[in-house]
Design a protein that fits this description.
Length: 158
Amino acid sequence: MSAAERAAVRAQADEALRAGRPGQALALYQQLAAVEGQEIVDDRVGVAEALAALRLSDQALAEFGAISVTWPDFPLAYIRQGALLEEQGATEAALTAYRAAVSRAPQSADAHLVLAYALARAGRGPEALAAFEDALALDPTRSEEQPALQALIDASPP
């Protein structure tokens, strides 16, 4: 499959997923993932996202897990695992996945922020505060995060 053909199929798959046709998207992403190439990680993420959209959470988690094994320094796979686990109410497992994302991409403000928000949702204010501070130290321009950080500061005991 040529690069142009891959791009066209990926565009169809992305559109199908956005349009609420995850079954069609899954078939297209699987077709792409079956073809070896440089962009296979994106195709595998597409497969996992389509599985998640089909509410096949266990299969989506397995796919994100396989992505993490093959590409261990790809934080998005850990972040998406965490989100799915959090949706299932598996808070500790979700936090473990989010921490893995931070561990694999320590310079990613986004990974730190995902962890910070998850810690805040879990009621772990001091840990959330530290994660927010880490994220903002990496990217001080993230002014949209300031209200969440201030809320944590205000809620912290003196």
